[in-house]
C-alpha cells in the first residue's frame, strides 16, 4: 500500500488515472500540466511536489519531487497543507470548495480551468481509488 | 465549512423608496435599451436621494458579450460613481456586476472574476440590483454570464465580491412584464430551486430557500399568466424567484443548466425556456441518486398537476403554463439538432453545472439526455 505522499503513490495514482474512463472522458480536451504542492504542517515535516503532465485524458508523465530546485514549470499549481490533502483524498473536502474556503490555493490561467471542473473532480475521485496509507 | 451569502434584500410595496435612504451621490444606472425611458427606470430615478447625480447606461443588449458589457466603461470612469444600480433582467444585472468590478479594479481582466481570485472590491462604490423580471436570481447571486465573442458559448463569471450589496424587489417593477418573459424567467427560477435542492453542494440554507421558493412560485405563476395585473401573485413569484436565486447561489446549479446554457448559446433561445425544457429529463436521469429529495419537492407542487413521480409532475406543470417539453416544441429542427449535437455535448460537459449535479454525467450520458429531450428518436435514444 503506497504512502501519501511518495514516489510510489504518484506512480500508482498515474496508473489509476490512465485506467479511469471517467477521468479520460472528463479530461479529453484538457492540455496542460499541473503541480500539486503538499505543504508541510504539524502532521508532515516537509513540503513535497507532484508534477503531472496531462493531455487529452491521459497522464503522460508523473513525477515526485522533495525539493523545489528542479521542478518543471507547470501551467497550474494547486497547493495546500498536508492535512488538507489527506482530507481531500479521503473525500472529506471537495476540491473546488477547498479553494473557496481557503484550504487550497490554485494558481494559473483562470478562464481555462473553469471549463474543467469535472476533470478536477474526477482527478480527486481517482485519488480515492489508490489504496493509500497516510 | 461553507458559507451563506446574501445581499440586503428589500421587498414589498414601495420598496424602491429604500434607495432614498442610501448615501448616493453619483449613481450609474445600468439598464437595457428597451427599458431606457420606461416606467421602471423612471421609478428608480425618482426614488434616488435628493441631489444625487446620475448617469444612465442603457446600451445593454440581451445576452451581451464582454465588449458590449464594457462599452461605457470609460464614460463611467470619468463620472466617478459611488453606486451602480442595475435595473433590468439578468443581462443588465450581470453587466452592472462586470462594470462594477472593472471600475473598482481597472487592472484586472473580466476573466479574473472567478471564485479563485480575491478582488478587494468596494473601495470606491457599491452595487444595487432592481430586477424587472422574476427569475434570473442575479440580484441575489455571485455569478454573471457573458456571451463569448465569435463563439456560441456562454462564460460564467463568479465571485462573492460581485454579489450585490442591496437587492430591491418592488412588485411594481414586474407588473408590466410580458407573458412570454414572465413564463420564461419564472421557469428559470423553478429550475434554480430544483437544482439547488439536489446539488451536491446543497446545505440547510439552500434547502429552506428552495422549498419556500417553489411554494411561492408554483401556485402563483399560473395566476400571473392568467391575470398579469394580480399584484399579490406577482409579488409572490418575484420574492420566490429571488429565494431560488439565493438557493442556487449558495449551493449550485446542475445538469439542466449545463444543457440549457449550451442550447441557449447555440440557438439563441431564451435561457428559462432552455433550462426548463431539460429539467424533466435531468430529473429522470438523476432520480435514483436523490429520490427522496425529488419526492419531497413533488409534494410542494399544486395538487392539480401532481403525479406519482416528480418527472411527470414537472411535465404536467410545464404543459399547463405553456413551457415547451421538447426541442421540437421549442422550435429546433431535427436537422439543426443533429448537426449541432456534438457541439452541444461539448459545451454542456464543460459547464460547471455538470460538476455539482446530483449524479455524475459522462459525455455519453449528456448525449443521451439531449436525445431524450429532443422529442425524436436517435442513435443514442
Automatic annotation (TrEMBL), chain A:
Domain of life: Archaea
InterPro entries: SCP2_sterol-bd_dom, SCP2_sterol-bd_dom_sf
Gene3D superfamilies from the UniProt entry: SCP2 sterol-binding domain
SUPFAM superfamilies assigned to the protein according to its UniProt record, in alphabetical order: SCP-like (SSF55718)
Pfam families in the cross-refs: SCP2 (PF02036)
Domain SCP2, first and last residues per copy: 16-120
Protein name: Sterol carrier protein
UniProtKB/TrEMBL annotation, chain B:
Domain Fe-containing alcohol dehydrogenase-like C-terminal: 184-371
Name assigned to this protein: Alcohol dehydrogenase
UniProt xrefs under Pfam families: ADH_Fe_C, Fe-ADH
UniProt-recorded Gene Ontology molecular function terms: alcohol dehydrogenase (NAD+) activity; metal ion binding
Keyword annotations of the record: Oxidoreductase
Lineage of producing organism: Archaea, Candidatus Marsarchaeota, Candidatus Marsarchaeota group 2
InterPro entries assigned to the protein according to its UniProt record, in alphabetical order: ADH_Fe/GldA, ADH_Fe_C, ADH_Fe_CS, Alcohol_dehydrogenase_Fe
Alcohol dehydrogenase iron-type/glycerol dehydrogenase GldA domain span: 7-171
Statement: the UniProt record of this protein carries the keyword Oxidoreductase: yes
UniProt-listed PROSITE patterns: ADH_IRON_2
Native species: Candidatus Marsarchaeota G2 archaeon OSP_D
Highest rank taxon of the organism: Archaea
Gene3D superfamilies linked to this entry: 3.40.50.1970, Dehydroquinate synthase-like - alpha domain
Amino acid at each position: 500500500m503506497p504512502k501519501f505522499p511518495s514516489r510510489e503513490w504518484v506512480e500508482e495514482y498515474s496508473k489509476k488515472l490512465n485506467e479511469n474512463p471517467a477521468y479520460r472522458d472528463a479530461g479529453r480536451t484538457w492540455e496542460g500540466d499541473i503541480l500539486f504542492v503538499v505543504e508541510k504542517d504539524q502532521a508532515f515535516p516537509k513540503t513535497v511536489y507532484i508534477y503531472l503532465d496531462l493531455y487529452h485524458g491521459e497522464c503522460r508523465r508523473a513525477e515526485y519531487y522533495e525539493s523545489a530546485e528542479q521542478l518543471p514549470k507547470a501551467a497550474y499549481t494547486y497547493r495546500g497543507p498536508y492535512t488538507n490533502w489527506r482530507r481531500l483524498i479521503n473525500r472529506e473536502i471537495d476540491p473546488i470548495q477547498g479553494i473557496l474556503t481557503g484550504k487550497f490555493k490554485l494558481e494559473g490561467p483562470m478562464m481555462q480551468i473553469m471549463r474543467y471542473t469535472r476533470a478536477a473532480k474526477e482527478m480527486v475521485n481517482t485519488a480515492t481509488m489508490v489504496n493509500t496509507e497516510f | 465549512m461553507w458559507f451563506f451569502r446574501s445581499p440586503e434584500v428589500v421587498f414589498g410595496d414601495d420598496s424602491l423608496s429604500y434607495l432614498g435612504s442610501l448615501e448616493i451621490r453619483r449613481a450609474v444606472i445600468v439598464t437595457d435599451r428597451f427599458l431606457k425611458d420606461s416606467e421602471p427606470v423612471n421609478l428608480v430615478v425618482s426614488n434616488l436621494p435628493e441631489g444625487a447625480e446620475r448617469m444612465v447606461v442603457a446600451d445593454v443588449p440581451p445576452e451581451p458579450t464582454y465588449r458590449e458589457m464594457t462599452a461605457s466603461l470609460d464614460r463611467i470612469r470619468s463620472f466617478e460613481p459611488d453606486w451602480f444600480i442595475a435595473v433590468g433582467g439578468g443581462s443588465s444585472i450581470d453587466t452592472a456586476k462586470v462594470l462594477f468590478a472593472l471600475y473598482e479594479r481597472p487592472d484586472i481582466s473580466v476573466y479574473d472574476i472567478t471564485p479563485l481570485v480575491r478582488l478587494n472590491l468596494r473601495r470606491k462604490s457599491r452595487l444595487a440590483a432592481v430586477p424587472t423580471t422574476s427569475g434570473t436570481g442575479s440580484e441575489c447571486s455571485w455569478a454573471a454570464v457573458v456571451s463569448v465573442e465569435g463563439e456560441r458559448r456562454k462564460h460564467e463569471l463568479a465571485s462573492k465580491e460581485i454579489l450585490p450589496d442591496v437587492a430591491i424587489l418592488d412588485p411594481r417593477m414586474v407588473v408590466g412584464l410580458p407573458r412570454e418573459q414572465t413564463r420564461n424567467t419564472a421557469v428559470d427560477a423553478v429550475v434554480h430551486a430544483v437544482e439547488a435542492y439536489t446539488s451536491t453542494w446543497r446545505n440547510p440554507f439552500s434547502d429552506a430557500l428552495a422549498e419556500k421558493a417553489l411554494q411561492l412560485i408554483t401556485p402563483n405563476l399560473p395566476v400571473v399568466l392568467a391575470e398579469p395585473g394580480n399584484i399579490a401573485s406577482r409579488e409572490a413569484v418575484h420574492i420566490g424567484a429571488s429565494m431560488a436565486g439565493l438557493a442556487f447561489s449558495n449551493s449550485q446549479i446542475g445538469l439542466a443548466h449545463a444543457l440549457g446554457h449550451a442550447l441557449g448559446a447555440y440557438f439563441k433561445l431564451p435561457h428559462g425556456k432552455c433550462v426548463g425544457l431539460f429539467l424533466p429529463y435531468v430529473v429522470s436521469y438523476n432520480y435514483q441518486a436523490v429520490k427522496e429529495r425529488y419526492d419531497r419537492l413533488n409534494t410542494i407542487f399544486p395538487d392539480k398537476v401532481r403525479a406519482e413521480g416528480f418527472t411527470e409532475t414537472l411535465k404536467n406543470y410545464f404543459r399547463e403554463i405553456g413551457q415547451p417539453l421538447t426541442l421540437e416544441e421549442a422550435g429546433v429542427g431535427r436537422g439543426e439538432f443533429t448537426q449541432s449535437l456534438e457541439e452541444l455535448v461539448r459545451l454542456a460537459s464543460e459547464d460547471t453545472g455538470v460538476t455539482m449535479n446530483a449524479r455524475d454525467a459522462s459525455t455519453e450520458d449528456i448525449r443521451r439526455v439531449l436525445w431524450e429531450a429532443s422529442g425524436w428518436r436517435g442513435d443514442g435514444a
